[in-house]
Design a protein that fits this description.
The chain is built from 11 helices and 8 strands. It is an alpha/beta fold. About 45% of the residues are buried. The structure holds guanosine-5'-diphosphate.
């Protein structure tokens, strides 16, 4: 259930209990700062003792809408060079699946191709050419999993051996994408190494290696977070943003979770916009983030 609806049910026919309301908004992952703002806004009203739950929902929606950008920046091809998109995030958030979904959205057909992996196709969706780099070399299954998607989508993929240097792999993939005039290079990366500091250092190295051929690359660094993990997603966003400078989020598992609040909390605290959302396990359960739709349908 959407969390504002759940809140409405909880308070139906009752006067507002401010502590309960505060807990309800925090439980919905809106974060302390935004929750406090919503409550202050409500309490500023003269006759707040007469407020009903519909007023609370109205004010919550208004405050949330102020926070979220009205327009989502689209990901577009760059003239004369590949647009390099790096996907980062901890394991299990849906990074590899989102890499495939983004490839499909930007250029893949989603149909099972008759040819082998290695043919670069223009497609029915955005009709751009895409190259994948399987740079999660720490998780053998990730290389395999992305390989299966690449084959299904008819998109070329560069991969290495298990344990190969992801920075070198991304460098080679970038070179290949440039040489072949590919519109988008999408790099899947590792979500776990032996220690966390190693992971951040490795991702920084990947970033530097991509910048060798084009100082502006990677043009996008998108953190994949699982909406159902609430506060964990927020702390992941803080950490990855500090280490890498994120340009956006892909928020997954928004299907039926009632957990959209995390999108708002991350935007509120870190000003990182959600660029895409994942709403299921299928290749087209994926869409650019749309504030109006999100507020109307997910909150
Ligand atoms: P990674 O370890 O971050 O690369 O995660 P995977 O891409 O392997 O995904 C982990 C699990 O989450 C898989 O079972 C995916 O099918 C599932 N998954 C990914 N995105 C979504 C989503 O938007 N909704 C749902 N329900 N499941 C998802």
């Amino acid at each position: 259930m959407k969390f504002l609806e759940a809140l409405a049910q909880q308070f139906a026919g009752k006067p507002i209990d401010w502590d309960e309301l505060e807990h309800g908004l925090i439980r919905a992952d809106l974060g302390v700062a935004l929750t406090t703002r919503i409550i202050n806004k409500l309490q500023e009203r003269e006759a707040w003792s007469l407020l009903g739950i519909s007023d609370v929902i109205k004010v919550a929606r208004e405050e949330i809408s102020i926070d979220l950008p009205t327009e989502t920046k689209p990901i577009q091809p760059i003239s004369g060079k590949p647009n390099v998109v790096l996907l980062v995030g901890v394991n299990g958030t849906g990074k590899t699946t989102s890499t495939a979904k983004l490839a499909h959205y930007l250029g893949g057909t989603g149909s099972v191709p008759s040819g082998k992996t290695g043919t670069t196709r223009r497609s029915s969706l955005q009709r751009h050419t895409v190259l994948l780099a399987a740079a999660d070399t720490f998780r053998a299954a990730a290389i395999e999993q992305l390989g299966i998607w690449a084959k299904r989508l008819g998109v070329e993929m560069i991969s290495g051996e298990y344990g190969a240097d992801p920075a070198a792999l991304c460098y080679d993939a970038h070179e290949s994408a440039t040489k072949n005039k590919i519109d988008f290079l999408i790099c899947d990366t590792a979500g776990r190494l032996h220690t966390k500091s190693n992971l951040m250092a490795e991702l920084q190295k990947v970033k530097r290696s991509l910048a060798k051929k084009d100082p502006a690359a990677p043009h996008e660094i998108l953190l994949v977070v699982d909406a159902t993990t609430g506060g964990n997603a927020l702390s992941q966003a803080r950490e990855f943003h500090q280490a890498l400078g994120l340009t956006g989020l892909i928020v997954t598992k928004l299907d039926g979770s009632g957990k959209g609040g995390i999108v708002v909390a991350i935007q509120d605290e870190l000003k990182i916009p959600t660029r895409f959302i994942g709403t299921g396990e299928k290749i087209d359960d994926f869409a650019p983030f749309d504030t109006r739709k999100f507020v109307a349908e997910m909150l």
